[in-house]
Amino acid sequence: MAGLARKDILGLQEMTVEEIDLILDTAEALKDLATRPIKKVPTLRGKAIVTLFYENSTRTARSFELAAKYLGADVINVSAATSSVQKGETLKDTARNLEAMGIDAVVVRHSMGGAPHLLARALRASVINAGDGLHEHPTQGLLDMLTIRQRKGGFKGLKVAIVGDSYHSRVARSNIYGLSKYGAEIWLAGPSTLLARGFEAYGVRTTTRVEEALEGADVVNVLRLQLERQEKGLFPTVAEYHKFWGVTEARLRLAKPDALLMHPGPMNRGVEISTAVADGAQSVITEQVTNGVAVRMALLYLLLGGGEPA
Amino acid sequence: MNEPKALLMDATQMNRALSRIAHEIIERNKGTEHVALVGIRRRGIPLAQRLAARLKEFEGRDVPVGSLDITLYRDDLTELAALPVVHKSEVNFKLPGTVVVLVDDVLYTGRTARAALDALLDIGRPAAIQLAVLVDRGHRELPIRADYVGKNVPTSRRERVEVHMTEVDGEDFVALYDIE
């Protein structure tokens, strides 16, 4: 198979193992581009891509922007704060107006789960989900998978501990959907108020004892704690969170000696992760960022490189 | 696959052609001191490796060999039915001061060679670039000419030239087919 037989990238839940393999293989081949003196190829010359961010993001938006530019596409960035959204324009109308200007793809982040799906149905252009509500963050899921595959060679039988606020985490969901397809053993650990439920069908195990999840883990993916959750009373204090669920050097020693330490960023040092762990030998956090550009290049190439989308 | 209408080269003829090209490379560059070979994926890579082995045999020097994937540089992606799979390019030697011999199996419209030139120049700035092909079948659409040619074959556009190599296809021969 060459090319993706789909117009949009909305989530890993709906993707096949073959599709994920193709994306990761393509990302692997494209990764070198970012390290070359001339970081630009003409592959997507003449294509126009819009990043439409209704939530703040630096890393994901810039990562998409760089990926598109490395492949020779033109990019415009629209953030809700500076767009007609402030004047009451609906999401659909915003996207339709952009499409009328001739764009080929929209990268969208929205606080509402399903917003990218709505756009995908309304537009001829490809839609890539850059995070929707509590639903999915497929490109983060894919870059996590690329990082794991590069370091561990595969996913089958790996124990992956996802630590922290999985309830509000679209990263956790994309990780669960993606990794479970390959037979990884997934654990969620965190305070009971912040634990995602209902993933038994995917073989996911949950625990409030972070030590249980870390014991013998091959991969430790630490989730960002959104500090405003404390105001909602979902955990007592930041200090207590760190004491019980923070990933520290002592706790990381429970995992395998060669376990990977991952974090989708931005980190709250001293809260969900200690500085020693974040900067430690097992940390692959900066590799994740590099892989993010490669994965996004792969998706843009596979969606926009060929003729008419399927 | 349909039957070939003509055998253009057998294994012996391919060997002879590669030996001749290797001698021409040495002659033209006055040795192999500054020479490197870069094969264009896919069959250009084993061809480059075979040429490097001959250069070593004739001159007693190892010549660096790299590989180039030109998928990202194609100017006809939107015309293709299936999107090509992207592979890594590997050029692990310094390009400044080096004469790079690009190696491909068939030279046809010249678009692949043009893409390879772009791809190589984006990686670095070689002292010079030369082009070696096993078969030149004509029908150029760009002003590109090979420096080293194994065999010139007049063809029609309704024909297809296929190079088969042991490393990829299990045997060595070049044949002409009708396009179905």
UniProtKB/TrEMBL annotation, chain A:
Top-level taxon in the UniProt lineage: Bacteria
Domain Aspartate/ornithine carbamoyltransferase carbamoyl-P binding: from-to ranges: 7-150
One Gene Ontology term of the molecular function aspect: aspartate carbamoyltransferase activity
Keywords noted in UniProt: Pyrimidine biosynthesis, Transferase
Entry EC no(s): 2.1.3.2
Pathway per the UniProt entry: Pyrimidine metabolism; UMP biosynthesis via de novo pathway; (S)-dihydroorotate from bicarbonate: step 2/3
Keyword Membrane (UniProt): no
Pfam families: OTCace (PF00185), OTCace_N (PF02729)
InterPro entries noted in UniProt: Asp/Orn_carbamoyltranf_P-bd, Asp/Orn_carbamoylTrfase, Asp/Orn_carbamoylTrfase_sf, Asp_carbamoyltransf, Asp_carbamoyltransf_Asp/Orn-bd
Residues annotated as binding L-aspartate: K87, R170, R224
Signal peptide: none
Domain Aspartate/ornithine carbamoyltransferase Asp/Orn-binding: 156-303
Family matches, as PROSITE patterns: CARBAMOYLTRANSFERASE
Residues at which carbamoyl phosphate binds: R59, T60, R109, H137, Q140, G265, P266
Catalytically driven reaction(s): carbamoyl phosphate + L-aspartate = N-carbamoyl-L-aspartate + phosphate + H(+)
Subunit structure of this chain's protein: Heterododecamer (2C3:3R2) of six catalytic PyrB chains organized as two trimers (C3), and six regulatory PyrI chains organized as three dimers (R2).
PANTHER family in alphabetical order: ASPARTATE CARBAMOYLTRANSFERASE, ORNITHINE CARBAMOYLTRANSFERASE, MITOCHONDRIAL
Family recorded in the similarity comment: Belongs to the aspartate/ornithine carbamoyltransferase superfamily. ATCase family.
Protein name: Aspartate carbamoyltransferase
Source organism of this protein record: Symbiobacterium terraclitae
Lineage of the organism: Bacteria, Bacillati, Bacillota, Clostridia, Eubacteriales
UniProtKB/TrEMBL annotation, chain B:
Keyword Cell membrane assigned: no
Domain Phosphoribosyltransferase: 12-151
HAMAP family: PyrR
Source species of the chain: Symbiobacterium terraclitae
Annotated motif PRPP-binding, positions: 100-112
Record-linked PANTHER family: BIFUNCTIONAL PROTEIN PYRR
Record-stated family: Belongs to the purine/pyrimidine phosphoribosyltransferase family. PyrR subfamily.
A Pfam family of this chain: Pribosyltran
Annotated function: Regulates transcriptional attenuation of the pyrimidine nucleotide (pyr) operon by binding in a uridine-dependent manner to specific sites on pyr mRNA. This disrupts an antiterminator hairpin in the RNA and favors formation of a downstream transcription terminator, leading to a reduced expression of downstream genes.
Catalytic activity: UMP + diphosphate = 5-phospho-alpha-D-ribose 1-diphosphate + uracil
Protein keywords: Glycosyltransferase, RNA-binding, Transcription, Transcription regulation, Transcription termination, Transferase
Single annotated GO MF: uracil phosphoribosyltransferase activity
Subunit structure, interactors included: Homodimer and homohexamer; in equilibrium.
Name the UniProt record assigns to this protein: Bifunctional protein PyrR
Record lineage: Bacteria, Bacillati, Bacillota, Clostridia, Eubacteriales
InterPro entries, per database record: PRTase-like (IPR029057), PRTase_dom (IPR000836), PyrR (IPR023050), PyrR_bifunctional (IPR050137)
EC number, as in UniProt: 2.4.2.9
Annotated CDD domains: PRTases_typeI
Keyword Oxidoreductase: no
